[in-house]
């Protein structure tokens, strides 16, 4: 669990397709691939104290038609290792009916562990299930505060997915639920094994696709932060496909801005 990689295209060469395979690795967690070192200053607020200094990792901007993301290493390797261990010990995942989702009218057990934490009285509904968050715990507040420090965005809710190995996965979907604050970003923080992460434009999905737009493939590093900015989730679906060769676990936290109440 010591080699991770994200690759992205140089902004002048490609229309969004990110090259690289799960087997390609880099010995340094800040590596974003030799093809693209285009540094771009994105989210502004970032003031580090002596007790919590941030790694000097530049923002990398990833763009395609209707897709806008920003990526950086947020936690150094030693700190990321420690956080992963704490998450494994302290996060309590949902059980029973909350481990099922509704797809095309049928209920399925999700192929991963899942839980939500957040501010009191918030709810979040997707795939036919309404989730009430558990109260924040210190390790999640620590991660959330670091994200806020790096981006200037304050989040009140987090969805956590634990993938025990490469057999656990996530199907194509958009994070466009009505409870989300309009045009707000989603901050995705990853710990653990490197997994392929895909974006696919809605017009290019399935047999009835109306356009051919190249998918975007990322490999997100241990301790990394991916900001999915507006309007990405209007047009692009994302997924984490099965990778049987991956044996180590991965924990992903997606921090969101959820509205306190939504009329249904």
Outline the secondary-structure elements.
Blueprint: E1 60-64, E2 67-73, H1 77-90, E3 100-103, E4 106-109, E5 113-118, E6 124-126, E7 129-131, H2 138-151, E8 157-163, E9 170-173, E10 186-192, E11 196-201, E12 216-219, E13 224-229, H3 232-235, E14 236-240, E15 250-256
Antiparallel strand pairs: 1-2, 2-13, 3-4, 5-8, 6-7, 8-15, 9-14, 10-13, 10-15, 11-12, 11-14
Organism: Crocodylus porosus (Saltwater crocodile)
InterPro entries: AlkB-like (IPR027450), AlkB-like_sf (IPR037151), ALKBH2 (IPR032852), Oxoglu/Fe-dep_dioxygenase_dom (IPR005123)
EC number: 1.14.11.33
Concise overview:
12% of the residues lie in helices and 30% in strands. With 264 residues, it is α+β, with helices and mostly antiparallel strands.
Q: What's the CATH superfamily, by name?
A: Alpha-ketoglutarate-dependent dioxygenase AlkB-like
The CATH architecture category equals Sandwich
Work out the strand percent.
25-35%
Helix content: 10-25%
Radius of gyration: 18 Å
Q: How far apart are the termini?
A: 44 Å
Number of domains: 1
The strand count comes to 15
Strand arrangement within the widest β-sheet reads: 1-2-13-10-15-8-5
Question: Could you characterize the architecture of this molecule?
Answer:
This protein is of the alpha+beta class and 264 residues long. It has one domain: Sandwich (Jelly Rolls). The protein has 3 helices and 15 strands. The strands form 4 sheets. A 7-stranded antiparallel β-sheet has the order 1-2-13-10-15-8-5. It has a 4-stranded antiparallel β-sheet with strand order 9-14-11-12. Strands 3-4 form a two-stranded antiparallel ribbon. A hairpin with a 2-residue loop joins β6 (124-126) and β7. The longest helix is centred in the first third of the chain and has 14 residues, at 77-90.
